[in-house]
Amino acid sequence: xxxxxxxxxxxxxxxxxxxxxxxxxxxxxxxxxxxxxxxxxxxxxxxxxxxxxxxxxxxxxxxxxxxxxxxxxxxxxxxxxxxxxxxxxxxxxxxxxxxxxxxxxxxxxxxxxxxxxxxxxxxxxxxxxxxxxxxxxxxxxxxxxxxxxxxxxxxxxxxxxxxxxxxxxxxxxxxxxxxxxxxxxxxxxxxxx
Amino acid sequence: xxxxxxxxxxxxxxxxxxxxxxxxxxxxxxxxxxxxxxxxxxxxxxxxxxxxxxxxxxxxxxxxxxxxxxxxxxxxxxxxxxxxxxxxxxxxxxxxxxxxxxxxxxxxxxxxxxxxxxxxx
Lengths: 193, 121
Prior knowledge:
The structure holds two protein chains of two kinds.
Chain A: H1 4-17, E1 22-30, E2 35-42, H2 49-53, H3 71-81, E3 86-91, E4 95-103, H4 115-125, E5 130-137, E6 140-145, H5 146-152, H6 161-180
Parallel strand pairs in A: 1-5
Antiparallel strand pairs in A: 1-2, 2-4, 3-4, 5-6
Helix pairs in contact in A: 1-3, 1-4, 4-6
Chain B: H1 6-23, E1 29-34, H2 37-42, H3 44-58, E2 63-68, E3 80-84, E4 90-92, H4 97-109
Parallel strand pairs in B: 1-2
Antiparallel strand pairs in B: 1-3, 3-4
C-alpha cells in the first residue's frame, strides 16, 4: 500500500465486516522515540486463536469470497520492514485490536497519507457505525468522534455527502496544522522513486 | 480537539438545506464500492471519493453510496456494484475516478448501463 492511511482503511473495514458498530483508530507519532504507532480497535466478533497465530500467512483468512487473506499480512510486513512490529489482540465475540509500530524515520516507511480521505470513506460508506479517530504528535492531539459530531450537527446527517466532505476538509486542515506545529521532520512523500 | 465552529455549521446547513428532507426517503439506487484489501490497493478509496463528489454535486437524495467487502474478483478491482430499483445489479470493473464519474452520470442519472466497463463473468 502506498500510504499507511490505506492500511488503516483496510483494517477498519475488516472490523466492520466482523460485525463491529464502533471503531477506535489511533495514530501516535513521537520524535523522542522516533516511532509511529497505529492501532485499530473494533467491537466485532473477534478472531479465533488459530488465525491470530497465522497473521503473517497470506493464505490464512476468515473470509469465504476468496481463499487468501491479505490485509493483516501486508501490514505486518510493512511494519517489520521498518524496524517495527504488529500485534493482534482478539477475544472471541469481544472485538479485535490491531497495533502496528514503525520506525518513523525509516526510509521504507510509507507516508501516513490522507487520513481525512480514509475517514471520509469510512463514515460515508458505513453510516450505522461510530468512529473515533485520535491522532497525537509529540503529545499534541486531534480527536474526531462521530458520536459527538452527530450531536454537534443537530439535524444534519452524516449520511449526507456534502456534510461528510465538509467535515473531512476541516479535518484535513486540522491535521496539517498538527503536523506543522510539531518538531518532526516531514515524511518523504516521494518514497517510491 | 476537533470541533466544528458555528460558522462551519451554518455553511454546511446552507449547502445541504435543499437535499435534507428528501434524503430521508427510501433509496432508489445504491452504489456499493468494494473496499477489500485488493480494492483499496487498486484505488477504491479514490473511486469512492469521486462518487461522493458526484453525489454531492447532483443533489440526488435517493442515491446511496456504501462500502462493502471483496467480491472475489480481485484481478478486476476496483469493483463497483450499481443496484437501481427494479433492475438486476450491475458490477463494474477496473474503476478509476474518471470512469466512475461516467458511470454515475450515465447509469445513475440517465439510466443507461455502460457495457464497456461491466465485469464479464
